[in-house]
Design goal:
Blueprint (H helix, E strand, L loop, with lengths): L1 H27 L4 H6 L5 H11 L5 H13 L13 H37 L2 H13 L2 H15 L15 H35 L2 H8 L4 H29 L3 H7 L4 H10 L3 H29 L8
């Protein structure tokens, strides 16, 4: 219980530090949001009135605590660029990015574990090393271009840049995500497969495996009940790291494939110095990453009795 509370405290402390650093950082960067909105032709009086309306004339501490108290009430502020509530802008974009993330994690987990196990059982080390190196050596943006060129422009399996919202057609919505998901999944699957292979091979060499065999268990029973079970526990923290990266939003992938997710919205918010929107997006990413890491720590302790943690 103490471990759980300790991790929970670290989670909230991390989110507090991220929110404070993000808030201060975007106030230090040169530039005036009021000037960006009204233009260079605006008078000093007009700029001052707008700064007052946006709350930019208050002290940094007052602005920060006003923003934090608003978040606890479900108010993330109003976007400077779009003149809409941040929550109304973030909600549909987060749905798209989370759908992309869940779909990608399903493919990564299924393919990565399966390929890693197959490679470990067949001892396909040269082939595995070659495929892993190939998958990791191709940058995401270049892989995206290749996927669009082959499957979109040549084979016409999808229309590049055409995205169908879930509310219009759920089937076409998920179809719009297939090739972006494959692009995200390829390098992460290679990493997971290589790690699973190494974990399985390491477990096969331990003494308890010989003991299990000596008790008359079949090879399949030994592999499923002992080797695979312990190997997956060792791989679980890596899955958490991959999930944090995927769910936080693949900015490059969303930009290239024209997916209206959190990544594209973040680029738009940063370039237009939209403080309220940028802060909310960074906080969203931090919440996703920190929550996943917290969940992984707790689950690993729960499922693996060999791990002795401070209580």
């Amino acid at each position: 219980m103490r471990y759980f509370l300790k991790k929970l405290l670290i989670l909230f402390l991390t989110l507090f530090l991220v929110s404070a650093i993000t808030f201060c950082a975007f106030r230090i960067i040169p530039g005036d949001p009021a000037l960006l909105i009204l233009g260079t032709e605006a008078s000093d009086e007009q700029l001052q009135i707008l700064r007052s309306d946006l709350g930019l004339d208050k002290s940094l501490r007052e602005q920060y605590f006003s923003w934090i108290f608003g978040i606890f009430q479900g108010d993330f502020g109003t976007s400077i660029r779009y003149q809409k509530s941040v929550a109304s802008l973030l909600a549909p974009r987060a749905l798209v990015t989370l759908s992309l993330g869940f779909f990608s994690m399903f493919v990564i987990s299924l393919a990565g574990i399966a390929i890693g196990i197959f490679s470990a059982k067949k001892d396909e080390r040269p082939v595995m090393n070659f495929l892993t190196t190939l998958a990791l050596s191709v940058p995401n943006f270049y892989l995206s271009v290749i996927v669009i060129w082959i499957f979109g422009l040549t084979l016409h399996l999808f229309a590049p840049g055409k995205f169908v919202p879930f509310g219009e057609n759920p089937a076409l919505f998920f179809k719009s995500l297939i090739f972006p998901v494959l692009t995200i999944s390829l390098p992460e699957t290679a990493i997971l497969a290589k790690y699973v292979r190494s974990a399985v091979i390491a477990e096969k060499k331990l003494g308890y495996v010989r003991t299990a065999r000596s008790k008359g268990n079949t090879e399949n029973a030994v592999f499923l009940r002992h080797i695979l079970k312990n190997a997956i526990v060792a791989v679980f923290p890596l899955l958490g790291m991959i999930a944090g990266s995927v769910f936080s939003g693949s900015i490059v992938i969303e930009q290239i494939f024209g997916i209206p997710g959190v990544g594209r919205l973040l680029i738009s918010a940063v370039t237009s110095r939209d403080f309220p929107l940028t802060q909310a997006l960074v906080l969203y990413i931090a919440v996703v990453v920190v929550t996943i890491n917290f969940a992984v720590d707790v689950i690993v302790q729960f499922i693996d009795p060999r791990i002795k943690l401070e209580k």
